[in-house]
Amino acid sequence: MNLPPSLVSTTVHTYSGLLGWGPISFMKRADLEKSEHLKDDSFTIRCDILVIMDYRAEDLPEDTPAFVTVAPSDLHQHLADLLKTEKGADVVFEVGGHTFAAHRCVLAARSLVFSAELFGGMKEGDTAGVVRIDEMEAQVFKALLCFAYTDSLPVTEKEDEDVMCQHLLVAADRYNMERLKTICEERLCKYINGGSVTTILTLAEQHHCEGLKKACLSFLGSPANLRALLDSDGFDHLSRSCPSVIKNLIAMSALV
């Protein structure tokens, strides 16, 4: 049976994900079986859907006035001040002739390696509470501390950013700080070029940075870039430091 179309004027209603009619509006099975709607063990459901493409602004519900403004989180700033003022510091790190005061609980919360070194079986430090860090530059450790307290990196001169990121990636891997490590990976991807690809690829291979390694191999996917590497001293360095990468490069060179 064809019914004539009809128009119904309604207001616009915004439905919530938690709003629904619920099972109370369902027809009971016994009532359905007794009704005229069930024929040959089947019935038809008609659904009319209206999609509103345009509506008036006055039809929309008004936003609730904001009587209270919530300030953005400033936890990072408070922790940065804690690091800067050294208030309550209970451990001192000696790195490259410089000393840095810090808080054991903060570092332990941010790094399982710090936690083991400061509280666990790997506990380090002399009777004065001084922990010596070898094979790391002072500025790199300072940036590592900044990230541990604020979850962000200090501002670095643009021309020094790639070198700092390389050193920080090594430090992040050493202290198992995965977020810092991936940030360094992401930034180093922007610095891949003919002069740096060997160093960055070696770094990626030695510290298990798959994303950074793929970015380097993508750069070397260009025949010109790959040929330049194969003809350079960097290839010999790569052969000695990361022989496993050579298989990838040989396979790529066969396609050039």
From TrEMBL:
Pathways involved: Protein modification; protein ubiquitination
One of the GO biological process terms: protein ubiquitination
Residue stretches making up the BTB domain: 89-157
Gene3D superfamilies attached to this UniProt entry: 1.25.40.420, Apoptosis, Tumor Necrosis Factor Receptor Associated Protein 2, Chain A (2.60.210.10), Potassium Channel Kv1.1, Chain A (3.30.710.10)
Pfam hit, one: BTB
Domain of life: Eukaryota
Family from the record: Belongs to the Tdpoz family.
Protein name: BTB domain-containing protein
